[in-house]
Structure formats: structure tokens, C-alpha cells
Amino acid sequence: MTQQPAATTAQAVAADAATRGEAEEDTRALPTGTRYPGEGSLYTIGEGVLRAPLQPHERQPDEPLYRPLRIFTVDPAQSRLEGAVATVNVAYEPLEPGPTGALLAVVDTDPATGGSLRQANLDERNVLMADGYDPSPSDPRFHQQMVYAVCSNVYSAFRTALGRTPGWSFGDAAQPARLVIRPHAAPEANAWYERVDGRGELHFGYFSAGEHPTDRTLAGGIVFTCLSHDIVVHEMTHALLDGLRAHFMVPTNPDVIAFHEAFADLVAVFQHFSYPEVVRTAIRQCRGALEQAALLGQVASQFSRSSGCQGPLRTALEEGAEPRPYREDLEPHALGAVLVSAVFEAFTTAFRRKTEALVRLASGGTGILPPGELPHDLQQLLADKAGKLASQFLAMCIRAIDYCPPTGLTFGDFLRALITADYDLVPDDPLDYRGALVDAFRRRRIYPRSAQHLSEDALLWKPPRVELPPVRGLDFATLRFQGDPAQAASVDELRRQAAALGRFVTRREWLAEFGLVAGDDPRLGPHTVDLPTVESIRTARRAGPNGQIVFDLVAEVTQAMHVAPTAEGPGFTHHGGCTVILSPQGEVRYAVVKSVLGAGRVERRRDFLLTPLGSRFWQRDGDWLRARTGLFRLVHEQMHVAYP
User: Fold this and answer.
1) Closest CA to 271 of 163, 162, 382, 397
2) pTM here?
């Protein structure tokens, strides 16, 4: 009998699965219909605060840590000798057929008939003993297992990096929502995340391969996007990012659209490193030069090669001597690829710095490895270093979302968020990871509009310009939790927190510090603004590499400005506001401001809306421009185009 390799446990899954439930505290909640002082007159509370918090299954002492499940680590066309199949450990939870758990519900129907396909029952005894269903492109139950396992592990990565339970951007106050996953949604070469009518769904299409595929795909055979590891991770990331920043779904500038695509690709690339056999194979092939590791840096190879293309759909690797520079007129996927390559370059630079000593030892002090295959032990050591570093970079990217403005994001804003979030947790940076990020962004001409120069000090977000008192009621001594500081006690406790912040940021003398504008501000001219809205308020508990624990309270406050139609063009709704990060004492540590009256913002927004790219996502309705529905389906309609 062939011995099966040990199941792979991603670091994030190990942390997530080991969490135990604790007794729920008495919340002493206020009545749900109660209005807090100033609510409805100074500020409003957004739907993100009012949704029932997600409740992942909390492991009980007699339950297993993990559920081992087999998946494709790349896609069905990849060779098994390259680690194409792996057994991964997913944080354990009881499952209904589907599978359906606390957060995810796989719903599989035949698009032609509307009838249900056979459901995967992962709690069935024989299936449990076999680590799930056999990897098979022809068994829909394995397809269901694949999307459940991969999406669960991506969720664990976000939960561990953020230090709290990430929520969705849909649902209501009645009960926690589930993300619906449809593995066979439509017969088309597309996959997309969709938020509509209070639901959130991942749709995976399927299509016939071309006559001359350039991989192992059968000519004319069926290609299932739900079996592409990268595509599943990509779409799951869209859903999670939407839960963190709902306004990033509004295409207000080229960077916002491209960022959603780039961030989803980054997560897919770094997830490759959670599979040791894939990493070891790549290290062997590229001889430790990760900047040449096609197996790790490519995204959605089968999707592209099944149509006859010679390369993957997208890649984090640069082919020329000089990287592609940032340009606003690039197609969203191509523009996003610029950001992906910048972060990946910083990662490979950090990897070289981290492994220099190993290379010197293996090369007798020369630093130049001899020709031929690397020694096995060196391959193992390099693969281990690469996996751990990729986990760190992925966590850096995810944590940075908490430091991004709530709307109008640019790539330069993301660089500042990366630098600030990492500095907050790890002030000491001996291998200069942050410097590597700055250099990689600079080489692609990605510059923050709001910074004077590219030093670390200049890129860090700053506290408010005026000294502010602590926000009453938002210190950790007052906050009420459900056992864990990462989980608020109830929806009404979240409402209380949001109301306390709303009263604070809308004090007239402090409006400008939070990027907000009074309705009677003379600078508005013919335009109008809505009341500021507290969109979200969440605790964060982050663990640094040296074991240090950092607590924060992270909130989004937005404000809508209705730009009146003029001779220059139709009217449109424009958002501003800020991300507020508070200390455990309730002190405002950062206010990441993006005011509706920020210099040139309205003009840049109007210019973008009138471009060919803008008109793809916005349509005219009388004298007003309104966003088209189905953003990601529109963006992904060109998924068949490979962007180098």
C-alpha cells in the first residue's frame, strides 16, 4: 500500500483551528430600535455595523483540530510530480451535505435544468477515512470539496492576519450570512463574485477547451474554473475584500478596479507557497531564484493554455530587464499586474536577503552556487524559508487593508498602508522589507500623491494634526466582547460603538481632521453632501513575529457628495471620509483621510468617468452617471486575455 504524504497545514489554518470557544458574556444590550444622541441628525450608522456578526464554528475540546481534504494545488493539467495534488488541513467544523458550514454554503445545480447535482457529504464515514473524495475533474462532489477547502483556507489566512473574524458585505441583523459558492454556475469562460439582493455568491463557469491547448488539457474537453486553485482563491479574495471595504466595489478611478484584481492575484500567488511539495519543486527548477519560479508566480495557467495561449493568464514575474511602469490607461488586469509584480519583487528581494547565509555556506563562501541541481538539504531549507516568508508577506498585505482609506484607493495609498501597518507591528526591520517594497514601487513609478518623498518616515500615516482627547466609550475597558476581544458582544454593542465614534468625528471643530464636510460648507457650491456614515467598527488583535500582541479598534466613516450636473458633464455621487484607528485607550492613532473636497478629487473623478474605461462601468441616466451592476462579471469578461 502506497504511503500517503502528510497533510499540509497552512500556518493560518493552524492558528484558526486551535481557537476554542469561550463562554458568552452578558451583553446587557440596549433595545435594537433605540436611537443614540446625534444619530440621524449628525451621522448615520451603516449596514455593515447592523449585520449579525459571523460566527465561525468554535472547536470544542472533544473535536478534532482539522479536516484533511485533497485538492488540486494548481489545476488538473499540472503534473503530480510537481505537487499538483495535496492533502490540506482545513479548520474542523461539522458539515451538512453540500458541503455547508457556518460561513460557506456550496450550492451545486445544473444550469441547463436547474436540478441539484450530487452533493458532497464530507461527514460520511468512508469519505472521512479517505481524506475526502478522490481528485477528479469528472466528479462534481470533488469540485464541491475543492471550492470548500480552498475558500476555507483563504478565510483562515484573513482571519489570522487581521486578528478578528472577517465579515461579509451582505446579510442582515437577523442571523449571520453565508457566502454561497456555485461550482458550475454557467457554461462560460468566466468566474466572478457577485453581491445582489442581500446575498453574496461566487460563480464558477466551465467551457470547452480550444483545438490546440498548450498543456495537458484535452482538445475540446471541458475546463472547470472551480478546479483552478488560483481562480478559486481569486474569487474568494474578492468576497473577503468586499467585506473589509465595501466602497472598493465602486469603480471611482482606474486604481480601485485594478486593485481588487491585483489583491486577489497576490493572495493566489502567496497561497502557492503554503504547499511544500509545490515550493520544493519550484526551488529545484529555478535553483533558488524565486524571481524565475514560474510554478509559483504564474496565475491560472490552465485557463489560458486551454485556449492555445503559450503562457498563463497572468504572472507576478517580470520578463524584461525593466518592469512595466504604472499607467492609468492600462486595462484593469494589466494595471493590477503592475502592482502584483511590485509586491512580488519586494518578496523575492527579501528572500535573497534572508537566504544569503545559506547560499554562502553551500557555495564555500563565494555566494555563487555551482552548476547542476541544488543539494537536497539546501532545497529543503530554501523551500522552508520561502514558505514562511510568503506567509509573512501575505499577512502584511492583508493587514494593510485596515490602514487603507475607505474609498478612492490608489496604489500609492496601498504602499503607505503597507508601510504603516508593518511598522505598527514590527518597528524593527533588520532585513529592510519595507525598503524593498518602496524600491519596487518606485521602479514602477507608483508614487503616493499625498507624500512629499519616499522615506519610511514620510510614508507612514500621521496622527491628526490637532491634539484630540480619547473617544469616550471606545476604550477597551468599556468595550464588551463575546469571550474573545476580536468578537463584539452583539449587534447592539457595535451600534453603541459606532454611535460613540459618530458623535466624536462629527463635532464641527474636528470635521476636517476626519475628512468630513458640514452640509452648509460654502466650498460645496452647487453640490450637496449626506450625513457622515459609520460604515464599520471592528477590533483587531495582531501577533508579531516576536510574539508581541497589538490591539486596535478600526473603523470606517464615509460621506457621500452629490456633484451637480454642469456644462463639463453629468452629475455623479462621490464618496470621501476616513479610516480611524484607535488605541486600546480610545486615542485616535491614525485618521487616513480621503475628503470629498480633497484637492483635485472631483476633477479627477469626472475625467475618469468620461474615459472609455469609465464608460464601461458607468452609464448615463438622464443628467446623472450611475454605476453598472455586476462589476466583476464586467471586469472578468476579458479573463481569456493573457496579460504579461
Assistant:
1) 397
2) 0.91
